[in-house]
Structures are given as structure tokens and as C-alpha cells.
Amino acid sequence: MKPYILLENILLDIEEGIKADIDAYTLSERYNYSEVHLRRLFNFAFNRTISGYIRSRTLSESLNDLLNTDKNIIDIALEYGFGYEQSYSRSFRREFGISPKDFRKTGQIVKIQPPLHLFDENRVDENAFFGPEFVIVPQFHLIGKPHLLPFEKSVKKAPDAAKLFWENERRYIKKAVNPDVYIGYTHKINHERKHSEYLPSVQVRNLSEIPSGLSGTTFNTSICARFRYIGQHHYYDLNREIANKMYSAIREYINDENSRYILSLDKVYFERIDAKSYDGNFCQMEWFTPVKEKTAS
Fold it and tell me: Residue 234 CB: number of other CB atoms within 10 A?
């Protein structure tokens, strides 16, 4: 099942199963998918754990019964899958900062977890695309194999350079910080000559030991826009067609007059892939570029 459809179905199943004690194990069995990988996929897509999301949605739905019915709290607890009133009350207090009894009595305003939804902008064919979100990326150092790529050929040639580095040149880098994490770093962008340098690379602690034939660079601490992609294919199969569709989605954000930030695509950007996250079904990729806040006109 394609990732967009899988995630969409999971969100619907959670809503339908709130009173049926739905959990990650049940969902993994339903879709014949590893529970471990399901948890990772959900967390990557929505930046929260599936268990935490189910708990928050369950507690949020229970508020209606507390306010609009005369049911005993123990009956509400059992109806929403809590074995004991005490466990419901503990979870309720952690979620909302107040006990169910006091909430019913005072009608205090609390922040709820609404249902998550996928939208058309989250779809790249039947694969899934999320963002942007804005994050601080601390300074890091990279060592890799530099390639000078013409703009018109970069989408085709970059994956070939990445594969060559990953299978061959990576082995010469002895002190990688995260040896299973690939970083494809585009910088030294020359608009007059219409080319940029692409550095298939891994992160290192410092640039004191750069193997012959390889190159090092440093990314300085920056506020970045992060986009996330999930595709039903191996990361080696990130090709021109997929890249063009992702960049099309990114350009839509860039051209949005209501966006708060300007993306520094003309200076530097990089993709990040954790090879360990590939589960035989889905590739997960993150894409970053520094941003600056728009000035008031």
C-alpha cells in the first residue's frame, strides 16, 4: 500500500477505533506491517508518537461525555479503554493539567488534540510529502566526494553520484558521526555559470582528517525549513521524476505570498537519508534549506 493511502487509512482507523482500544499493534496486524516500522513511519510523518497521538485523541473525545452527560467517571474511563478510573484520571491530568472531576465541576478551558488529516499538498503521486516546518540546525561538518553539476543535469546526475559515494568512497571516511546517515549537500551555487557543487557525504566530528580525493565543508548553525518525504521505493530509486515533483511542491511554498520566510535555495540546501530507516517498503528523506524572515514592506 502506498504511504499516503496507508497513513490516511491509519488516521481514519484511529478515529473509528477510539472506543475500541485501538493501538499500534492492532494497526500493524491490520496492514500486515511491522509494529516497529509503523511507529517509526508515523513519528516521521507527523512528528509525534502514534501511542501519544491515540492517547491524546482518546482523552480529547472523552471531554464531551464529561461535559454533556451524567455518566460516572468510571464508566467513561471504561468506555474509552482505560481499565481503571485511576489510570484515566492520571492520563487526564497529564494531558490537561486538571482531574476529570475538577474539569466537570469547573468547565475549565483546555487544549485538545484535533484529528490529524492529510491534504492534497501532502500527496506526491501516492507518496507522502510534509512541510515546511522550521527548525534550528546546529553547525555540523561533512566529508564527501565533490561533483560539479550543471543545473540542467543535476536532478539526474546527483542520484548517480550519491550511489557511487555510498557504495565506494564512504568507506574511506573513518570517523563518521552517523555512518548510516547520507547527506547530499548542494552549495557553491553559481547562477552565472549555471552549476553548483554537489557533495555526497557523511557527517564527521571535525575536518582534521580528510582522505585523499575527498573534500570537507561546514554547515553553520541556521534556522532551516525542513520538508519530509515518504516514498514506496528504495532510497536508490529517488530519481528525476520524484525529485521534480518534490521541488515543485517546495516551489509552491516559495511562491506563497503569505509565507513568513524566504528560502535560501540560491545558497545551500541538503537532503538527509537515514539508511537504517528503510524497512523494505518505504524510503524516508528529509530536505533542508536555511531561511530568513521576510522584512515588512
Answer: 12
The cell numbers describing 77, all together, are: 474511563
Predicted TM-score (pTM) of this structure: 0.89
What is d(CA 28, CA 252) in angstroms, rounded to the nearest whole number? 34
- Residue spans per domain, the chain: 3-106, 121-293
- Tens digit of each residue's pLDDT (9 = 90 or more) over 39-49: 999 999 999 99
Residues 234, 275: contact at Cβ < 8 Å?
no
Query: How far, in Å, CA of 262 to CA of 247, rounded?
Result: 15
- DSSP letter string, 104-166: HHH-------PPP---GGGEETTEEEEEEEEEEE--EEEEE--EEEEHHHHHHHHHHHHHHHH
Antiparallel, parallel or unpaired: β 215-219 and 222-231? unpaired
Q: In a 3-state reduction of DSSP, which class is residue 70?
A: coil
CATH architecture of the domain 121-293 equals: Alpha-Beta Barrel (3.20)
Do the two domains 3-106 and 121-293 of this chain adopt the same fold?
no
CA-based end-to-end distance of the chain: 47
Taking each helix axis from N to C end, the angle separating 50-68 and 85-96, rounded to the nearest 10 degrees, works out to 100
pLDDT, tens digit, 9 for 90 and up, residues 253-297: 777 777 778 887 788 999 999 999 998 999 999 999 999 887 755
Q: What is the pLDDT of residue 297?
A: 53
Q: 3-106, superfamily in CATH?
A: Homeodomain-like (1.10.10.60)
Reported as a single tens digit per residue, the pLDDT across 64-114 is 999 999 999 999 999 999 989 999 999 999 999 999 999 999 989 999 999
Which residues, listed in sequence order, are joined to residue 225 by a DSSP beta bridge?
134, 289
Spatial distance between the Cα atoms of 149 and 156, rounded to a whole number of angstroms: 10
